[in-house]
Amino acid sequence: MKPRLLQHGRLPEQTEARLAEHFDVHPFWAESDPAAYLAQHGGEFVAMTTRAATGVDATMLAALPNLRVVSSFGVGLDKLDLDTARARGIAVGYTPDVLNDCVADTAFALLMDAARQVSAADRYVRRGAWPRGPYPLTTRVSGKRLGIVGMGRIGRVIAKRSSGFDMEVRYFGRKAQDGVPYGFEPSLPALAEWADFLVIAASGGPETRHLVSADVLKALGPQGYLINIARGTVVDEAALVDALANQRIAGAGLDVFEDEPNVPPALFALDNVVLLPHVASGTHETRAAMAGLVFDNLQSFFATGAVLRSAI
């Protein structure tokens, strides 16, 4: 018999077809009363797929007493109850590395757009303003100072991208990283004060909630730019909106928000912020690779007892 698998959230069509070939899949996303369904059938499932934005909490894990493995689509871990999974011996797989390049590309797209005001200048042309006068001068990117919050897999690729712009790089994290050829700054406000561009590449979760506070934004200052391709919770969003509206920082490029898909309406009228709908990994190539790793993590677990890329 095929292992019983609970599919918590949609996956790419091709991946769903592959899962159906090897597992007895139940589309949990289609249940009108999820709690009632789990109360009756939760004990049947030994495997589960989910997405980083959906996760799985302690309540849901408790309703799945025979669960052995979770395979998550994405790299975010803040909505996965890893402590409960670890205590119960549940393997948790996720999809790191395969999205590093596209997320780093998006970070630089946002950085370039925020500094050179590409989107704002496009709107300027479209509303017919150009004949009335030239567009205001913007900010150079090459040769500037890049501060990175979180020198993990994605942070390192972002730093590598910066070499093409002759940027000086420093970073902040829990500790200095071995083998990293960039300056370590143990104080985030100090890094923000030094940087022209502050890029957030840190993990989400309680430990980093509002790590970028009003004080950090004040240190970044009226000539500094904030770029966030990590998690919206890492930044105090209310403080960021205030800083942008009152030009306490020069601008921002945001792919993530605290309460997605809800974006603070106050940002819509501001030309000094670029807004994306959480699409940093949203390319055909990267999403296919992520989906493949979701499947491969499950296959590896049932063949060897271990996922290929473990979050625990």
TrEMBL record:
Pfam families: 2-Hacid_dh, 2-Hacid_dh_C. GO terms for cellular component: cytosol. Residues 18-307 form the D-isomer specific 2-hydroxyacid dehydrogenase catalytic domain. Keywords: NAD, NADP, Oxidoreductase. It comes from the Bacteria. InterPro entries: D-isomer_2-hydroxyacid_DH, D-isomer_2_OHA_DH_cat_dom, D-isomer_DH_NAD-bd, NAD(P)-bd_dom_sf. One of its GO terms (molecular function) is hydroxypyruvate reductase [NAD(P)H] activity. Transmembrane segments: none annotated. Residues 108-280 form the D-isomer specific 2-hydroxyacid dehydrogenase NAD-binding domain. PANTHER family: 2-HYDROXYACID DEHYDROGENASE YGL185C-RELATED (PTHR10996:SF178), 2-HYDROXYACID DEHYDROGENASE-RELATED (PTHR10996). Belongs to the D-isomer specific 2-hydroxyacid dehydrogenase family. This is 2-hydroxyacid dehydrogenase.
